[in-house]
Amino acid sequence: MTTTDTQTSTTELMLAIGKKAKAAARILRNATDKQKSTALLQMADLLLEKKDELIAANRKDLEAAKERNLAAALVDRLTISETTIQSMATGLRQIAAMPDPVGKRSETIVRPNGMMVAQMRVPIGVIGIIYESRPNVTIDAAALCIKSGNATILRGGSEAFHSNQALGEVILEGLRAAKLPEDCVQVVPTTDRAAVGSLVTMTDYVDVIVPRGGKGLIERLSQEASVPLIKHLDGNCHLYIDKDADLAKAHAVAINAKTYRYGICGTMETLLVHHEVAPALLPDLCADLQQKGVELRGCERTRNLVDDIKEATDEDWETEFLAPILAIRIVDSYDQAVDHIALYSSEHTESIVTENLNTALRFQKEVDSSSVYVNLPTCFADGFEYGLGAEIGISTNRLHARGPVGLEGLTTEKWVLTGNGQLRGQ
User: Fold this and answer.
1) I need a labelling partner for 217 at 20 to 30 A (CA). Which of 97, 156, 306, 390 fits?
2) Is the same domain home to 155 and 215?
3) What is the distance between the terminal CA atoms of the chain, rounded to a whole angstrom?
4) Burial (Cβ within 10 Å: 0-12, 13-18, ≥19) of residue 296
5) 245 and 184 inside one domain
6) Which residues of 127-161 are buried (b: 16+ CB within 10 A; e: fewer)?
7) Predicted local confidence at residue 4, as pLDDT
8) Who contacts 308 (Cβ-Cβ below 8 Å, separation ≥6)?
9) Is residue 32 located within the same domain as residue 157?
10) Which CATH number covers residue 139?
């Protein structure tokens, strides 16, 4: 088969998947919460029953990963263990227990003519999710879409193909048990990269794309997609320690913000410190960070206070390191800190440490990121921590959903009006 024939075959496959998803979405949007929750609870039980099969399928992916010399961090994210399976099952049960957002109505407004006006939460429709490496996303994404009444098309990375297909079978059995259409969740059965190109342009069948992966994937989809995306490119997150900060609190928050986990999008990448507290704070803080293996890159004033720090460059201020590397700048004022954030932030998550209520409120109002904190580490950027149960991703979009996208973020609203025969113009 030629390359052209392969691309044509993949395009036809994806169109068929899209048509089935569209039809399934019409049924799923009217499913009861009991049906949707039953499907998720069945999946949770099946994960535990089939754990040996799932681990065996995952082993095929791990063997291929070793042959391809994939990075250790990627192999770690790819691995399914009994603990991973238990965590996925727990997540399914948590999502099943959450309130169903579909059908929820806003406050009703009664117009002068007696007509009642409200808004109702409804599913978006068909959601395409493109992700890399982590097989648990297959379960998390399916669960969130089912609970919010959306059909979904899941396209995982080629490195997790066998794992995702095995998890897809668990999802299908759960849907059957709840008497929901199997096409509500479809795991794309090919590793052909052309499948991604088709999925992001199927505007007749797909309502939104959620990409979960590295910056390269997001940039590619931003260029190719004609279906709207819920996305973020990177998480260049800042922590600003104000002149009115409690320094013990600031020390602990900064350590947690950087070292909780290096590879998540909510990790602090730049630390900004007011010059009045820098001499008292930075020497001990930097020593603790260095002891934990963090490489520090600082402005000239920072380097004058602390030894063994590399000189920070403009590129460092712009970089999401996703590694034990931290850029540090001493600023003259609150305004200079906010200006730095405005210039370099990816508008993901920023935080201030201060005991000054007015400064805290200013920061939350003036900093234009999807999440803005006071006296908290940036690594709280997670849907579970926000009380959403789980998330499909974190959005830095300005339209529709912003920040962690949970069940409600996977719905939209329609206007619902009720009358008693009123006529316009009378």
Assistant:
1) 390
2) yes
3) 68
4) buried
5) no
6) bbbbbbbbbbbbbbbbbbbbbbbbbbbbbbbebbb
7) 53
8) 290, 296
9) yes
10) 3.40.605.10
Question: Which residue's structure tokens are 């059957």?
Answer: 176
What is the DSSP code (8-state) at residue 193? T
Domain assignment of residue 253, given as a range = 237-380
> Which residues are within 8 A (CB) of 175 and not within 5 positions of it... i.e. 6 or more apart?
39, 146, 181, 182, 184, 185
Residue 73 lies in a domain: yes
Write the burial class of residue 301 (CB in 10 Å: 0-12 exposed, 13-18 middle, 19+ buried).
Answer: middle
Q: Using an 8 Å Cβ cutoff, are 330 and 281 in contact? A: no
Tell me the CATH number at 268.
3.40.309.10
Identify whether 182 is part of a domain.
yes
pLDDT value at residue 383: 81
> How far apart are alpha carbons 43 and 27 in whole angstroms?
20
Look up the pTM and report it: 0.85
Handedness of CA 187, 190, 195, 196 (dihedral sign): positive
Which residues, 6+ apart, have CB-to-CB distance to 42 below 8 Å?
173, 174, 177, 178
pLDDT score at 39: 98
Who contacts 387 (Cβ-Cβ below 8 Å, separation ≥6)? none
Same domain, 144 and 246: no
| Of 55, 73, 12, the residue nearest 262 (C-alpha) | 73
Chain CA centroid to CA 422, Å: 45
pLDDT means per 10 residues in the chain (426 residues)?
65 97 97 97 98 97 94 86 94 94 96 97 97 91 97 96 97 97 97 95 96 82 92 88 98 98 92 98 98 97 95 96 95 98 96 98 96 97 82 83 89 96 89
